[in-house]
Amino acid sequence: MNDVTVYTQARCGYSGQLKDFLKRNHIEYTEKDVSDRKHFDELMELKGQGVPFTLIYNKPYAGFNERVKTALMSFNSQN
């Protein structure tokens, strides 16, 4: 399992933007589509309010914004 996990949904534009960002920056990640009930339940246990929802070393980040980008780039520079 990777140290970055993203909860996404196919119809979510921000989820797509996040995945594009990860690919462009060569950041390996595990994707969990919340259309799968198991992954939806995991997201709810994490108190996630929506997608995209990212875990970096199990630290939660909601949405796709500058805070998330900064955390991902910091993660990437350490690996």
UniProtKB/TrEMBL annotation:
Highest taxon in the source lineage: Bacteria
- Do you know which Pfam families this protein is assigned to? Glutaredoxin
InterPro entries linked to this entry = Glutaredoxin, Thioredoxin-like_sf
Gene3D superfamilies linked to this entry: Glutaredoxin
The protein's matches in PROSITE patterns, at most eight in alphabetical order, are given as: GLUTAREDOXIN_2
Please report the stretch or stretches of sequence annotated as the Glutaredoxin domain.
Answer: 4-52
Can you name this protein?
Glutaredoxin family protein
